[in-house]
Design brief:
8-stranded mixed beta sheet, binds aspartic acid, Glutamine Phosphoribosylpyrophosphate, subunit 1, domain 1, 9 helices, alpha+beta, single chain
């Protein structure tokens, strides 16, 4: 068995391996690991204490995919519930749907018995207020004001980063993928990134492998990045070549807003690799034989940034 995760999965990866050792499925393993990241108050990009939208509201996105049969569940723009990964799993298991957003997702979460919680912390609220103040904006006067120009200026690509990715594989070759995020800091209300979009930020198929992304979600949506990695594996590329090709697809995107991207990936045999547009960026993995996780460096693929706000 093996689990690969983005580096901020360090608070949950041991729990994922422990779950599988205790007989849990890959879905149980990654849900348990991601919930610990969602609960981590020091992580301002996932779950509780996540950074808010331009209006100061924490809107969470998550998805889960089962590589055995390609079933999937996703939620987007969920306010007031701290564990979107678990809500996404319930969507997969309890509904004939894949994707719920906004008030419908929140209604479903309540119906499934999830406990609501105040998601913004005093610290994240203060950061948001200070960042707005630096643009001469008063947080209490945004409600009825045009936001598009402000979002373009507020969203410095260097401070919008963070999401957690987990891919778990058991000893029978079953692979599952989970992604959870508070998304782009200072986003326009209602914005969805790649994390809840199956094929963009998350994809798993036992036959070929799996991939998940962090970084500027708009890019992964436009290039279908997670699905592309798996499609390149299906076409016979090695894991390394598949990841690099998916990064090159991102580098080739046009448009005014190009920022960073990171991919973790696994092939059907359980080999792992990871890729980043930032040199020196790390990921983690742990097998059933390991007493702790390993930290490894991602392969760097240059994707020149441009941000023409
Ligand atoms: N991919 C996430 C999103 O676009 C954010 C991130 O990973 O930085 O919502």
């Amino acid at each position: 068995m093996i689990v690969i995760a983005s580096s901020n999965g360090d608070v949950g990866i041991r729990q994922s391996i422990a779950m599988m050792k205790a007989g849990g499925s890959t879905l149980d393993a990654l849900e348990a690991g991601i919930r610990l990241v969602e609960d981590n108050p020091a992580d301002h990009w996932v779950g509780y204490s996540g950074m808010p939208s331009i209006l100061g509201e924490v809107e969470l996105d998550a998805s889960i995919m089962d590589g055995r049969d390609l079933t999937a569940g996703a939620v987007g723009c969920v306010k007031g519930f701290p564990h979107p990964i678990s809500i996404a799993r319930k969507v997969m298991e309890q509904l004939p749907h894949v994707f719920l957003v906004g008030p419908g997702a929140e209604r479903f979460a309540a119906e499934m018995g999830f406990e609501p919680r105040e998601m913004i912390t005093p610290e994240t609220r203060q950061t948001w207020q200070a960042d707005l103040a630096s643009l001469a904006q008063n947080p209490t006067q945004l409600e009825n004001q045009p936001l598009a120009g402000l979002v373009r200026h507020f969203s410095n690509p260097h401070r919008t980063r963070g999401t957690v990715n987990f891919i778990a594989r058991d000893d029978r070759g079953n692979i599952a993928t989970g992604v959870s995020t508070s998304g782009f800091y200072g986003k326009y209300p209602g914005r969805l990134g790649d994390s809840p979009v199956i094929g963009a930020g998350n994809y798993a198929d036992n036959r070929y492998g799996a991939a998940a992304c962090t970084g500027m979600g708009e890019m992964a949506i436009r290039a279908s990045t997670a699905r592309s990695v798996v499609m390149y594996l299906k076409q016979g590329l090695t894991l390394e070549a598949a990841g690099i090709q998916a990064m090159i697809d991102l580098r080739d995107l046009g448009g005014r807003f190009i920022s960073g991207m990171n991919i973790i990936a696994m092939n059907a045999q359980g080999r792992v690799a990871a890729f980043s547009s930032e040199p020196g960026k790390t990921y983690i993995y742990m097998t059933g034989e390991d007493s702790d996780f390993h930290v490894a460096t991602r392969s760097f693929v240059d994707v020149p940034q441009r941000w023409e706000a």
